[in-house]
Design goal:
The chain is an alpha+beta fold and 904 residues long. It contains 22 helices and 40 strands. Strands 13, 14, 15, 16, 18, 20, 21 and 23 form an eight-stranded antiparallel β-sheet that branches. A six-stranded mixed β-sheet has the order 9-29-28-25-10-11. The longest helix is centred in the N-terminal third of the chain and has 24 residues. 52% of the residues are buried. Belongs to the glycosyl hydrolase 3 family. It comes from Pinibacter soli. This is Glycoside hydrolase family 3 C-terminal domain-containing protein.
């Protein structure tokens, strides 16, 4: 009897219910009482302390033992699964397997610049802005906070028995594609145009998300995407073939960041891209997946497909490289793609039966998937997982909001400041704020975002610096259109809550259980591009939605309701149909005009269904006003200065969007020019003779060849997150000295760019190959103070194989304001005249007090001199002389030079 008890005590300690039982057994058996009565009491005590429905003596298996390695546990569990059960786990919505205690999971989660699409979260600046900080330590700290929020939110969902999409621990970020062309709509999700900067930022992100590796369980899992040779066009990505890519471009531009994240940061997932590479879909590319990722880089963790990418192999009008779903799924798994973010892998059982793939091939993928969940603690009790103790109070905590402000400040890039018009005086008598982005909180969030409790618009930020009566506001114009739409969304509420109540069902006819309920306090702007659901728990297709609100007219007059959608919609006002387009397919934009009476309330119900294709729904209510630049200028001409807040927004640029407006196509841009309606208004504002400061919000390059004629200062604010308005105002009024640097090149015009679908870098793309004169070069940014660089010193003039050297660069703040300077180090390979003009190989952000000197010490190891070798068609370090170029940007006229010799 005693032997049996001891065996079960040991067993008990290795399972979820064990801790309390084990302690009680030890306490009692430690008294050496061994009677049958005492043993029965022990059993009763154990059963009383566990919430599980199996006895103390129930069988446990190795996969349930947290003391074993993740490999051992995954191998044991795999051996207990049927083929059908294994296949069920290879799709992003993996069902529960109750008989084995495997809970359901949806692998899809997002954390591009904060936990996304799962309600409340801190929204940090969009990643292109984070890249502009040139501060990897701060980026690491940011993503450590994001993973804190991720863990806290996950365990809160888990406590409430929620296992929906965007509630798990596997985050499909960072996007480390190279921003090769500024027309790409998703460029804002990247870290810019440079491979080294992208790799440096990406490594910091992964380490911040996954943890330092010292804990028994990983904090979360990150994902390097989209592998590889992927950066638009969005409109053709499901059929596009990135072909004729040179080996130089592949290895020097498109692969370095992925290699760094795999080999240095040990990223746990890699997402293969939608497009083809040299004829093969990226998710079955033998070169990318087998030869490079699995073989050369020894990556043995999860490869996940982009959402719908496997279906693209065989769907009509897409790649059409495979004859069937069975053939596509089999080829993808054999090539190394473990997890399909679509339903194609459901055909794997049929593929096995047809001899297209073996169960042993599938086992490799399922093993990796099971191991990853074990590494995250998903099969163990939360009491064993230290991350589960992170309190929910960290979500949008004061510390995290403060960090969002810090990162927004650090991201600001001062592009122009004629006659030192900035900073503005806080004693200014009258300041006009004009522009379509000035009072737009949603613009601050960009895409792949969470929802903050409060956002500070740029107008809010400016108003906080001055007496209310000193600030006048005019929207002035829209982003693109020649008339301005003023939304009445703030005049809507339902059951005492602002905005619309949204109710979703996973049926086209509004039947069945409710899939999700949401409260939406902004214009409805849903787009299913990139397989993005309208709300967690809602299907991508075959669903319906009802939006309800009560609109109280703030004034008498015409109210315009505007709708466009794919598929059908109908609008009722006070139970009467106002608009209807109840068909399948893209429905035309329609408007309805209501003669409203001030103070009267109107019940609004909008119904929408989606059947097939790409779901989108746009709806707003308000009124139009024609743009009259001269009239706007006349209304603000008495101001002492004018701040124009314009640019673009993620409503125009983004992932495979349904929006097509002048200059935009499916989320990409057809031109990099500032929309003409904004340029015309800037002309009118400048004609007042008053100083004009342009706050530019964008996720990418905007052509500004006219900047000296139109404006007196330009501040690039990106999409700066929930604290963006405070950060902008802090810079405008001198409470923060800007030090952001451009992670991309600002070209003069679209004519400076090669064809959008040409993936060759050597045809003049990015600062590394562009031979023209940019408006603002990569790495550029001004300050309110001045810096002087001294002569650099090297720890050694010659570097041998597997050696490293230190370059020490003195920098003096010669101005009268404390500030940051970003010291940049570029390498020019004199052995290869056909290679890049120069390549970033190091940077350091320094805080330097006025009239003080600081030193930047940058380490260069042997790999810093690794470039593509045309003779061997490989990356290698060649013996010879290299130029080290250091200074405040990539522009030749600000760089100093020192030589170093490499010997092998």
């Amino acid at each position: 009897m005693e032997a049996i008890v001891c065996g079960n005590v040991q067993e008990c300690s290795q399972t979820r219910f064990a801790t309390g039982c084990h302690e009680k057994l030890f306490a009692i058996t430690g008294k050496r009482k061994s009677t049958t009565i005492m043993l029965k009491k022990i059993i009763v005590v154990c059963l009383a302390t566990t919430a599980f429905s199996f006895s103390l003596f129930a069988q446990t298996y190795p996969y349930q033992n947290p003391r074993l390695s993740a490999d051992e546990r995954a191998k044991d569990l795999l051996g207990r699964m049927t083929l059908r059960e294994k296949i069920s786990q290879t799709m992003n919505g993996s069902p529960a397997i109750d008989r084995l205690g495997i809970p359901a999971v949806d692998w899809w989660n997002e954390a591009l610049h904060g936990v996304a699409r799962a309600g409340k979260a801190t929204v940090f600046p969009q990643t292109i802005g984070l890249a502009a900080t040139f501060d990897t330590a701060a980026v690491y700290e940011t993503y450590n906070m994001i993973s804190d929020e991720a863990r806290a939110k996950h365990h809160e969902f888990k406590r409430n028995n929620q296992l929906k999409r965007y509630q798990g621990l596997t985050f499909w970020t960072p996007n480390i594609n190279i921003l090769r062309d500024p027309r790409w709509g998703r460029g804002m999700e990247t870290y810019g145009e440079d491979p080294f900067l992208t790799a440096s930022m990406g490594v910091a992100v992964v380490k911040g998300l996954q943890g330092d590796g010292t804990q028994p369980y990983d904090k979360t899992h990150a994902c390097a995407k989209h592998y590889a040779v992927h950066s638009g066009p969005e409109w053709s990505r499901h059929s596009f073939d990135a072909k004729n890519v040179s080996q130089r471009d592949l290895w020097e531009t498109y692969l370095p960041a992925f290699k760094a994240l795999v080999t240095q940061a040990k990223v746990k997932e890699v997402m293969c891209a939608y497009n083809r590479f040299e004829g093969e879909p990226c998710c079955s590319s033998k070169e990318l997946l087998v030869n490079i990722l699995r073989t050369k880089w020894k990556f043995d963790d999860i490869i996940v497909s982009d959402c719908g990418a496997i279906k693209d192999f065989y769907a009509p009008g897409k790649h059409e490289t495979h004859p069937s779903a069975e053939a596509a799924s089999a080829d993808a798994v054999i090539s190394g793609t473990d997890l399909a973010c679509d339903g194609s892998y459901a055909y794997l059982e049929s593929a096995v039966n047809k001899g297209l793939i073996t169960e042993a091939d599938i086992n490799k993928s399922v093993f990796r998937l099971l191991r990853a969940r074990i590494q995250l603690g998903m099969f163990d009790d939360d009491s064993l997982v230290s991350w589960s103790t992170i309190p929910y109070s960290v979500v949008e905590s004061k510390e995290h909001v403060a960090k969002a402000l810090e990162m927004a400040r650090k991201s600001m890039v001062l592009l122009s400041n004629k006659n030192n018009i900035l900073p503005l005086s806080k004693s200014i008598r009258r300041l006009a704020v004009v522009g379509p982005n000035a009072n737009d909180s949603v613009m601050l969030w960009a895409n792949y975002n969470g929802i903050p409790s409060h956002s500070v618009t740029i107008l809010d930020g400016i108003r906080s610096k001055l007496p209310t009566e000193n600030v006048i506001y005019e929207k002035g114009c829209s982003l693109v259109d020649k008339n301005v739409f003023y939304s009445y969304i703030n005049a809507c509420q339902f059951d005492g809550k602002p905005g619309f109540k949204a109710t979703f069902r996973n049926s086209k006819d509004f039947t069945g259980p409710v899939a999700a309920i949401d409260q939406v306090n902004k214009p409805l702007n849903y787009d299913g591009g990139g397989n993005t659901v309208f709300a967690p728990g809602v299907n991508l297709s075959d669903f319906s939605a009802r939006f309800e609100t009560v609109f109280t007219a703030p004034q008498s007059g015409e109210v315009v309701f505007t709708i466009s959608a794919d598929d059908g919609y109908r609008l009722n006002i006070d139970d009467k149909e106002a608009l209807s387009s109840w068909g399948i397919g893209k429905q035309p934009r329609k408007t309805y005009k209501l003669a409203a009476e001030k103070g009267k309330s109107y019940r609004i119900v909008l119904e929408y269904f989606q059947a097939e294709g790409n779901a989108f729904l746009n709806f707003d209510l308000g009124y139009y006003q024609d743009v009259d630049p001269a009239a706007v200028a006349d209304r603000v001409k008495d101001a002492d200065a004018i701040v124009f807040v314009g640019g673009i927004s993620s409503a125009l640029e983004g992932e495979e969007m349904g929006v097509e407006l002048p200059g935009f196509k499916k989320g990409d841009r057809t031109t990099i020019d500032l929309p003409k309606v904004q340029e015309d208004l800037l002309n009118a504002l400048k004609a007042t003779g008053k100083p004009v400061i342009f706050v530019l919000c964008s996720g990418n390059t905007i052509a500004l060849p006219w900047e000296n004629d139109h404006v007196d200062a330009i501040l690039e604010a990106w999409y700066p997150g929930q604290q963006g308005g405070t950060a902008v105002a802090d810079v405008l009024f001198g409470d923060y000295n800007p030090a952001g640097r451009l992670p991309l090149t600002f070209y003069k015009s679209t004519q400076d760019l090669p064809a959008f679908d040409d993936y060759s870098m050597t045809k003049g793309r990015t600062y590394r190959y562009f031979k023209g004169k940019p408006v603002y070069p990569f790495g550029y940014g001004l300050s309110f103070t001045t810096f002087q660089y001294g002569k650099a010193s090297l720890s050694k003039p010659v570097i041998a194989a597997n050696d490293s050297l230190l370059i020490t660069i003195p920098v003096k703040n010669t101005g009268h304001m404390d500030g940051d300077e970003v010291v940049q180090l570029y390498v020019r390979n004199l052995q290869d005249p056909q290679g890049p003009i120069k390549s970033l190989r190091g940077f350091k952000r320094l805080n330097i007090k006025q009239q003080q000197t600081a030193t930047a010490t940058i380490t260069l190891n042997n790999s810093s001199f690794e470039f593509f070798d045309p003779q061997t068609q490989m990356m290698k370090v060649k013996a010879g002389k290299y130029e080290l170029l250091y200074g405040s940007s990539s522009a030749d006229n600000v760089l100093q030079k020192v030589m170093v010799t490499v010997r092998l």
